[in-house]
Design brief:
Shape: elongated
Helix content: 10-25%
Bound molecules: uridine-diphosphate-N-acetylglucosamine, magnesium ion
Number of strands: 37
Number of helices: 10
Strand content: 25-35%
């Protein structure tokens, strides 16, 4: 633990910037990668330190950003404070705004991060804290060595390697522009040094802004230790400024999420076509085929197969299930069940153990029991079906009368014929059967056979007399001739 005694740990996440280059009506930090807004990745990394205070500085689009943070706070079950920076006067000013929401007599350590740097991990912040306390620094900055340092603040070191200052690109001289070690914008500060430094920074620079980076040279000038921790994994300090970077960091995060699950025992056939949100959980021996997107809080049990070509959002798939070419959301699939190919699971679908939702079947707000099968070409909406029943091909629950929705209840061990319409509200009892083409308008008692519609009539010679000269009439005449010759 880097924090001695009752020293406090505070984290400040800067997220007030406009993000003009996104060219979007959505605030930059609310653009998602891996299913979570950029700012959520940043806040989760900071929250991983379990700090005493966590404050996010919001500005542009603050109503929407604050709303998201409120939901996140309850998901994380911790306090997330927001501080408003109405005008973006620079990173130093932003941190001052953040600190104004924290206790007046701040002590301990303050970590500063950015809301648009999504790949930063808690482990890196822990390493920064450890370096900060073990070396007795007043300020420790996280840096990276990059191929193209254009635009970044440069880390200026003395001959002993100590950090003397950070010089912004626009303020740098020719020699300083050659420096490839850049400021990530992530720091650990002694709280008192930060508060004192922020009261002394000025806007006498190329951008006329209050630079947080000037706190380092002020501390150094006061004779305090200023150090740096080089982050070898440069992806972790990369920020998003436009949608090209959004896609690039999104792809890298996906690659990292896939690596983690593969090391935990998941098989991924084609890492280029499988996309997993950060909130997805997978068990051992899950097989992900080509073209799979698992979103939100989707979880997949041991030995289940997903794909090819399947998108699941907030779906729970139990062990051993197979889900092929399916689009589903807010649903649950039982152990050993089979779904697809070409199935559409809408919210509220629950399929029991070893059940089947087959080809060209749409299901909504329905419970389908253990071992029950809906194999072909059907719509099941607002229905409850018991165990070990079979719904014949091309069946529809007629759940909507144009005004209100009604439920269909089908019991256990039921066999319904093909092309049945269940005109809800209606109940089919346990062990009942129904004939092909039945329109079930009345309840079917347990064990009954339901049939509807009159007997079939054939009007002999109708086509030849009523549709003379058509191809159908010619074909009928030819068939008649063959029949006559045979008799
Ligand atoms: C800043 C650093 C620079 C570093 C770079 C890393 C300063 C003076 N410079 O550059 O050394 O290499 O980050 O990306 O700190 N923000 C606010 N309010 C403001 C200004 C910024 O909330 O008034 C937020 C932005 O939303 C963003 C972050 O702070 O998340 C950084 O701001 P940005 O303008 O992107 O950084 P630079 O000033 O270019
Ligand atoms: Mg700036």
């Amino acid at each position: 633990m880097p924090q001695g005694g009752n020293a406090q740990l505070s984290t400040v996440v800067l997220a007030a910037g406009e993000g003009t280059r996104m060219r979007s009506s959505t605030p930059k930090v609310l653009h998602p990668i891996a299913g979570r807004p950029l700012v959520e990745h940043a806040v989760r990394a900071a929250a991983g330190l379990d700090p005493d205070h966590l404050v996010v500085v919001v500005g542009h689009g603050r109503a929407a950003v604050t709303e998201h943070l409120e939901g996140l706070a309850s998901a994380l079950d911790r306090k997330v404070t927001t501080a408003v920076q109405t005008e973006q006067k620079g990173t130093g000013h932003a941190v001052s705004c953040g600190l104004s929401e924290l206790p007046g007599t701040l002590s301990g350590t303050v970590i500063v991060t950015y809301g648009d740097v999504p790949l930063l991990e808690t482990e890196t912040l822990s390493a920064l804290l450890a370096e900060h306390s073990s070396s007795g620094n007043a300020v420790t900055v996280l840096t990276a060595v990059v191929g193209d340092p254009t635009g970044y603040g440069r880390i200026v070191r003395d001959t002993d390697g100590g950090v003397t200052s950070i010089v912004e690109h626009k303020d740098a001289d020719e020699d300083q522009l050659e420096i490839t070690e850049i400021n990530s914008g992530i720091y650990a500060f002694d709280a008192e040094v930060l508060v004192d430094g922020l009261s002394r920074i000025r806007t006498d620079n190329a951008q006329g802004e209050l630079y947080l980076t000037d706190v380092l040279s002020i501390a150094r000038g006061d004779g305090r230790r200023v150090g740096a921790l080089v982050c070898v994994d440069a992806w972790q300090v990369e920020g998003v400024n436009d949608r090209v970077q959004l896609a690039k960091l999104g792809a890298e995060l996906n690659r990292r999420i896939l690596d983690r699950w593969m090391r935990d025992g998941v098989t991924v056939i084609d890492t280029g076509s499988v996309w997993l949100d950060a909130g997805v959980t997978l068990a051992r021996d899950v097989l992900l085929e080509q073209g799979v997107q698992l979103r939100g809080s989707t979880s997949v049990g041991e030995g289940a197969t997903i794909g090819p070509d399947t998108t699941l959002t907030n779906v729970t798939v139990a062990e051993g299930a197979k889900v092929i070419r399916t689009h589903g959301s807010d649903s649950a699939i039982g152990a050993g069940a089979s779904v697809g190919p070409f199935a559409y699971l809408r919210p509220g679908t629950s399929l029991g153990e070893k059940g089947k939702i087959g080809t060209f079947v749409e299901v909504k707000n329905s419970e389908i029991g253990t071992g029950t099968k809906v194999p072909h070409l059907s719509y099941i909406g607002d229905a409850t079906i018991g165990e070990y029943s079979n719904v014949g091909a091309a069946s529809v629950t007629v759940n909507y009368d144009g005004v209100s929705k009604s439920r269909t209840t089908i019991g256990s061990h039921v066999r319904t014929g093909c092309d049945n319409m269940f005109v809800a509200p209606v109940t089919v009892g346990d062990g009942a059967y129904s004939g092909a083409g039945t329109v079930i308008r009345r309840d079917v008692p347990p064990g009954a056979l339901a049939v509807s519609g009159g007997p079939q009539r054939n009007l002999e010679g109708w086509v030849v007399s009523r549709r003379p000269g058509t191809a159908a009439a010619e074909a009928a005449l030819a068939a008649q001739k063959v029949e006559e010759q045979q008799t």
